[in-house]
Design brief:
There is one protein chain. By secondary structure, the protein is an alpha+beta fold. About 25% of the residues lie in helices and about 35% in strands. The chain has a 5-stranded mixed sheet, with helices on one face. A hairpin with a 2-residue loop joins strand 4 and strand 5. It is globular.
Length: about 325
């Protein structure tokens, strides 16, 4: 299960064949036999723990403001794919973007960290030259190195009418044994109510209807009753559309669902974070960001293009 400190993500790395200096026919034959065996599948293991992944990501995000060059060594410079449309592709693009920011105008303060297999997702308060933001940064590892990055941001807002901000509340990961069940529950919630538009399912038994805590900026009351009329109206008017689920990342009691659709006719990405307990959704945070038109992006990788996710299939 993802997230435990002793959990290991193991990736097989095939060896290449080797040569030898030939000294006589016997040595040549032995070298050829050894090379053939190596080419037939000898392998070594590159092992990295979930804790090491998390530590490397937090060091990297801290280096955005400290400039520590060693923190960038965790990125594979040959294969790194950048999905932030404001940043050029590759490690060079990331470093150029950071170099363009005046000193003291970028910092990342992590609030929650989820580790799910090769993915590390960081929920943070991030300072940019444009101001403070609520953000998600997602990194994908391969063979112990970061090979891909996605993010989303929205301006920090004051507490909503229920008294909650987009970052406060519980942050400790618990109940790791329930990770897969909670990911399925989150998929069901978004697929049924938001993609399929079945508002009748917004409540029990998927949600804790009375105790539901809502951090969303536009919601002024807790409980399902505090948000259901707003969501119902937005859906009925066509102003809130969830077209598809792109990725689900979870660890223990927290699950992040990444979707795309539209808000008031503008293409948007939706990052919905749920906290689960007792088999129900108990709490919700979100970050909503307009999708950048492809012809205005600084890379061609797509803002929400993720590797295929079995849980992110279209709702049936």
């Amino acid at each position: 299960m993802p997230g435990a400190d002793l959990e290991e993500v193991t990736i097989m790395n095939r060896k290449t064949g080797f040569g030898a200096v030939a000294v006589g026919a016997a040595v040549i034959a032995l070298s050829a036999m050894s090379a053939a065996r190596a080419g037939q599948g000898s392998s070594s293991q590159v092992t990295i723990t979930a804790a090491q992944q998390e530590h490397a990501v937090l060091d990297l995000l801290a280096a955005y403001s400290t400039g520590d060059p060693s923190a960038f060594d965790v990125i594979n410079p040959d294969t790194f794919i950048q999905h932030d449309p404001q940043i050029g592709d590759g490690l060079a693009g990331l470093k150029a973007w950071l170099a363009s920011i005046p000193p003291g105008q970028i910092s990342v303060t992590p609030v929650r960290v989820l580790v799910d297999g090769p993915y590390v997702a960081v929920h943070s308060q991030t300072l940019l030259p444009s101001g403070e933001t609520t953000s998600w940064d997602i990194f994908r590892f391969e063979q112990g190195k970061i090979v891909e990055h996605w993010d989303t941001r929205q301006p920090i807002a004051p507490p909503n009418g229920a008294g909650h901000t987009e970052l406060d509340g519980p942050a400790t990961v618990t109940d790791r044994a329930a990770t897969q069940d909670n990911k399925r529950l989150a998929w069901t919630a978004i697929a049924t109510v938001f993609v399929d538009g079945d508002i009748s399912q917004y409540g029990e038994p998927i949600w804790n209807a009375a105790g539901y805590i809502q951090h969303s900026q536009g919601i002024n009351a807790d409980g399902i009753a505090g948000s259901k009329p707003i969501i119902e109206q937005l859906q009925a008017s066509g102003n809130l559309v969830y077209a598809k689920i792109d990725k689900i990342i979870g660890e223990g009691n927290f699950v992040l669902v990444i979707s795309q659709g539209s808000l008031f006719g503008t293409p948007y990405s939706f990052y919905d974070l749920f906290r689960m307990a007792h088999g129900q959704i108990q709490e919700h945070w979100d970050v909503l960001q307009p999708l950048t038109p492809p012809d205005q992006a600084k890379n061609n990788n797509g803002q929400v293009n993720f590797p295929p996710d079995p849980l992110a299939a279209p709702a049936s």
